[in-house]
Structures are given as structure tokens and as C-alpha cells.
Amino acid sequence: MFKAGDKVVYPGHGVAVVEGIMKKEFSGKSKNFYKLRLSDNELVIMVPTSNVEKVGLREVIAGKEVSKIMKILRGESSELPANWNRRQKKYQERIQSGSVFEVAKVFRDLSLLKAHKELSFGEKKVLDNAKNLIVNEIAEAKGIATTKAESMIQKVFL
Questions:
Q1: Per the domain annotation, does 97 fall within a domain?
Q2: Beta-carbon contacts of residue 143 (< 8 Å; ≥ 6 apart)
Q3: Which residues pair with residue 122 across a beta bridge?
Q4: What is residue 158's three-state secondary structure?
Q5: Model-level pTM?
Q6: pLDDT, tens digit only, all 158 positions of the chain
Q7: What is the CATH number of the domain that holds 104?
């Protein structure tokens, strides 16, 4: 159970702050909701407290786990479908999984692909999204500025 002020990760959207727990009534039934505010764009999301596991809401990784992200980024590219649509589906599944480690694989794979060929518009969007998700979580986990976190991951591909 999260409390006001906790930093959490909402899959596909990134780091958010729990602003509180609110009671709302829908169809005559009262439910408790976490009120989340995303760190990077001020979007507010309401998540039923009973659906936390289903939506994949989780704590930010510990600072020591950042090394695992860096190891994934330095690794070999995943075996991906040749068809762009199937690759896109695989990327979205990984991002929506809520695991920063799966998001790191997407970022790695697309960064390596970008070094060999021009990415499509859709792939560029997925790459940017994956980068933002990783950067924000590393920054939060390490207590550093996002610019420093971004520099950390970019150095891997130089």
C-alpha cells in the first residue's frame, strides 16, 4: 500500500508522485483511488487501490539496481521480428510490462538499430519514450538530475 508522497512508476508513463488516496463513488459503489501526478508532464492519473497489481503500479527501483539497467544497455540486441509491425508490438508489450529492465531492452535494441539504419517515425517515438522512462527512473533511483541520468545512458552507445 502506497501513501501520499511516495514515488511510484505507472507502466508506460513513468515516475509519479502519490498525491493521496481519494474515495470516489461510481454506480453506487464507493472505491478508493490513488491520485498520481506524473513527474514530467503534470498529468493526473487515478488508479483504483484494488487494481494496483493489475495495472502494474510499482515502487521506483533501488539505486543499486541502476547497474542492472546499464548492463542490459551494454548487452547484445534481442532477437526481433523482421516485420516492423511485429517489432512495434513487441516494443509496446515490453514498455507496458512496467519493468524498467524490459524498457531498457527496447531502448538498447532501437539504439543499436538506429546505428545501422534510419528509424521509422513510429520507432523514433518508441525510442524517445523508452529513453524518457529510463532516464526519469534512473534519476529518481539515484537522486540525480535527469540530464546526468541521460548522459549516463548515452555514454553506453558512444
A1: yes
A2: 63
A3: none
A4: coil
A5: 0.90
A6: 899 999 999 998 999 999 999 998 888 889 999 999 997 777 899 999 998 999 999 999 999 999 999 999 999 988 877 787 888 899 999 999 989 999 999 999 999 989 888 988 999 999 999 999 999 999 999 999 999 999 999 999 87
A7: 1.20.58.1290
